[in-house]
Amino acid sequence: MLTLDIFGFRALWSPYFLIALILILVGYFLITVKFRTRFASSEPLTKKQAIFFSVGIALLYTIKGSPIDLLGHITFYTHMIQMAFLYLIIPPIIIVGIPQWIWRAIINAPVIKHIFKFFTKPIIALILFNGFFSLYHIPLVFDVIKTDFFLHALYTGFLFIMSGFMWWPLINQLPEQQTLSGLKKVGYIFADGVLLTPACALIIFNEVPMYVTFSDPQAWAQALELCVPASTLAGLTLSGPEMFTTMSLLEDQRLGGVLMKVIQEVVYGTILAKVFFAWYQEEQEQALEVEMEVKMKMKEAELNPQPVE
Description:
Elements: H1 9-13, H2 15-34, H3 47-64, H4 67-71, H5 76-97, H6 100-107, H7 110-119, H8 122-136, H9 139-146, H10 149-171, H11 182-205, H12 212-215, H13 217-224, H14 230-234, H15 249-303
């Protein structure tokens, strides 16, 4: 069985992508720390924000720049792990990691303001993300995108932005952007899980391998060109994923669907628990405030009894 080392350092570790992410991280700290005072309404960077953004960038490189990305073109289950991290885990981490004053500057920009307001409407965000996610995994669409560098970059980048819009109503910390109450957030999470289920079910319960880019040697080799230089592939003789794994195509496909659904349930379950307890705590605090107000009024009535006529 072959190892991934045959594809070379560039394919395994994506050095240009790493440099780009390092520049983004450096720019983030320059804006939020060194040059922060040059921006109006800026606020000090918190430790939580710095950690979250750094972790988000590190995860982004791990998923799209490390050998995991290459393995995602060889085995379908790794591809689905990539999808789960790219669209269900990394976006909320990055959203929390960007300071509120930067978000306000971005979403209040003249052109972006109306676009952002439209695409972050809960129903629209849910339908668009889950719709385009499901569309991507239709075999005809998947195989075309997987074999075209520009289509793949365009579609996955667009889906990443849509996932950010989908997460925004749940995760954002801006008071003026809170469009969902506690119970509505619970319903939003449930709806998100339901809308993602058909795509996973189609993959899990299909009786045959669905994707040509994993079953046909020529299409599979063409898909590899997305992350492996053509010059490297020209010197290799490859017949398909079976050269790197003992798992059958159908087992690989079903495992991918199961992993996607499991990761989705874990992520949504975690967010659901957080939202529910936050809502419960808020309700308790409101009830306590009402109780205190009633007690104060009763005490005032005792101290200042009304004269009997």
